Known about the structure:
By secondary structure, the chain is α+β, with helices and mostly antiparallel strands. The protein has one domain (14-44). It has helices at 2-8, 24-32, and strands at residues 15-19, 39-43. Strand 1 (15-19), helix 2 and strand 2 form a beta-alpha-beta unit. This is NADP-dependent oxidoreductase. It comes from Actinacidiphila oryziradicis.
Amino acid sequence: RFGDWLRSGEISFPHARIAGIDRAPQALQEMIEGRHFGAVVVEL
């Protein structure tokens, strides 16, 4: 049921995408400081 809601757009999963492994420390710091709501994904 949850998957159906995600696919239909009834609910969304908040996330922030950070490009580049070199920005991972910055992404971690921002996550700790509460600058992002939801998941933080570091794209390689």
